[in-house]
Design goal:
- Keywords: Oxidoreductase.
- One of its GO terms (molecular function) is oxidoreductase activity.
- This is Aryl-alcohol dehydrogenase-like predicted oxidoreductase.
- It comes from Saccharothrix ecbatanensis.
- It holds the Pfam family Aldo_ket_red.
- This protein is of the alpha/beta class.
- The protein has one domain: NADP-dependent oxidoreductase domain (TIM Barrel), CATH 3.20.20.100.
- The protein is 38% helix and 14% strand.
- It has 12 helices and 10 strands.
- The strands form 2 sheets. The protein has an 8-stranded parallel barrel, surrounded by 4 helices.
- α7 packs across α8.
- The longest helix has 17 residues.
């Protein structure tokens, strides 16, 4: 296991993150975390809304300071209370205190805004997060499931006012869901944010276990009958590359996310040590450029406007003059 710096901070995070949303059995969860730690993994991801996830994690984690624990707030704590959800200061303060109690700790390493709240000014959220950092309750901040312009606005505001900026961005990202490539990934790379990619196996569709041959482990999460032609095209491409390289399809799918951007840190959720071990094997897989290209082309995806339009205009003498194709990029 190697480590990456988290955003523009000095925090060292492992190159594969462990999601704990699906943890249910404490004994198995403890075995998974121990195996992950033995492999060098150090990031555990949860959220206030993951049922009893925070409490379970808090009850089984040993060597607390050995781990980088991230949790999230925004989602409702009480459906009847209009102030028990959102990104405003009141919900942040109450949610944070509850997470600290559940996790049996006095600080959160990474505190994530779970989703953009259109009704709360970003200034309020960033100032409230910074206050929690200055109070020592959280160390770093991140944001999940938000438009690129919101994240860029928030971090610009934070730097102007000497508040703590977001160091991480959390988004869904896999071969079947590449929307982040339009604005979010370029924004994160430009601003120096780490990108934790959730659902990197597309909820099991790219794991190679949906249409596994008889006698092989099969996915319990995905009904093969529910797969679309697009799903099957991506899964078949992943399986073909895996067969060529002599590795597992899940490892190819995870390696693809890493090959697309150095900012990406896959966030995997597992239910067994065997599943974790297979996913960890992705760290040893380097995809040839031709394999990445074939995976990209296996399902249709367009960046759309303005990216495609700008790319078409870039080599045009009408736009950038006769030397348009003579300028080397950074």
């Amino acid at each position: 296991m190697r480590y990456r710096l988290f955003g523009q901070t000095g925090l060292r995070v492992s190159e594969l993150l462990l999601g704990t949303m699906t943890f249910a059995d404490p004994a198995e969860a403890r075995r998974i975390i121990d195996a992950y730690a033995d492999a060098g993994g150090n990031v555990l991801d949860t959220a206030s809304a993951y049922g009893g996830g925070e409490e379970l994690l808090g009850s089984i984690v040993e060597r607390r300071d050995r781990f980088v624990i991230g949790t999230k707030y925004t989602l409702s704590r009480d459906a009847a209370d209009p102030n028990a959800s959102g990104n405003h200061r009141k919900n942040l303060a109450r949610s944070l205190d509850r997470s600290l109690r559940r996790l049996r700790t006095d600080y959160i390493d990474i505190y994530w805004v779970h989703i953009w709240d259109r009704h709360t000014p970003v200034e309020e959220t960033m100032r409230a997060l910074d206050d929690a950092v200055r109070a020592g309750k959280i160390l770093y901040t991140g944001i999940s499931d938000a438009p690129a312009w919101v994240v860029a606005h928030a971090n610009t505001l934070a730097r102007w006012r000497d508040w703590t900026p977001f160091a991480g961005l959390q988004v869904p990202y896999n071969l079947l869901k590449r929307d982040a490539e339009r604005e979010l990934l370029p924004m994160a790379e430009a601003l120096g944010l780490s990108v934790t990619a959730w659902a990197p196996l597309a909820a099991g569709k790219l794991s190679g276990t949906v249409d596994a041959p008889p006698g092989s482990p099969r996915s319990k999460r995905v009904d093969p009958a529910s797969l679309t032609a697009r799903d099957r095209a991506a899964a078949n491409a992943v399986r073909t590359v895996a067969d060529e390289l002599g590795v597992r399809p899940a490892q190819v799918a995870l390696a693809w996310t890493r090959a697309k951007s150095r900012a990406v840190l896959p966030l995997v959720g597992v239910s067994s040590v065997a599943q974790l071990t297979e996913n960890l094997g992705a760290l040893d897989v380097t995809l040839p450029e031709d394999a990445v290209r074939r995976l990209d082309e296996s399902v249709e995806f367009r960046l759309g406007f303005p990216s495609d339009f700008i790319a078409e205009c870039e080599p045009s003498p009408f736009v950038f003059g006769d030397t348009a194709t003579s300028v080397d990029p950074r």
